[in-house]
Amino acid sequence: EAGVAQSPRYKIIEKRQSVAFWCNPISGHATLYWYQQILGQGPKLLIQFQNNGVVDDSQLPKDRFSAERLKGVDSTLKIQPAKLEDSAVYLCASSLDSSGRERFFGPGTRLTVL
Amino acid sequence: RKEVEQDPGPFNVPEGATVAFNCTYSNSASQSFFWYRQDCRKEPKLLMSVYSSGNEDGRFTAQLNRASQYISLLIRDSKLSDSATYLCAVGGGSNYKLTFGKGTLLTVNP
Question: SS3 of A93, please?
Fold first, then answer.
């Protein structure tokens, strides 16, 4: 079974620039999550999709972050404009549904903002 | 009080040692509990779910204490390959939102 795919794996940008990350979840997984993991911290949920609808975006900094999952499959997360404190690994995860089942994580995108 | 707190670590133990990690959570209505393992510069992977009755998988034993609101992970006969960061995760709410602890770094030395 193919895992969660993410791209790019690494990205270096300057502050105030824009960046976008892409995620393709495991086939058939209805729930998709974006997490931010700052060095030395655990993953923090940014947004959770159930199919193409948002069910939790309470910790998404909406003034600069946006995410979409238009067809209920793959998803993009965008940051515009980036700040130094956005340097982190952005992890996409998926699960069959939102009923507490295991989250399967992708390899992440390591973002460095200079 | 933070939602999920873990032993700060790091833990450095010799091969063959037994090591235990604890994790406390603040929301008494939490419904699901997990231990994830994260290797350096890799993604988290599920190690074990934690059930009320406790559960064991080979050298790993997980326990849940709802009254005191903590979960634990015991690793017996540590191997070099057990070196990793161990993250506890606690889920709850209508969408089973998962909140992770900061993680505890374990290094098993030869």
Answer: strand
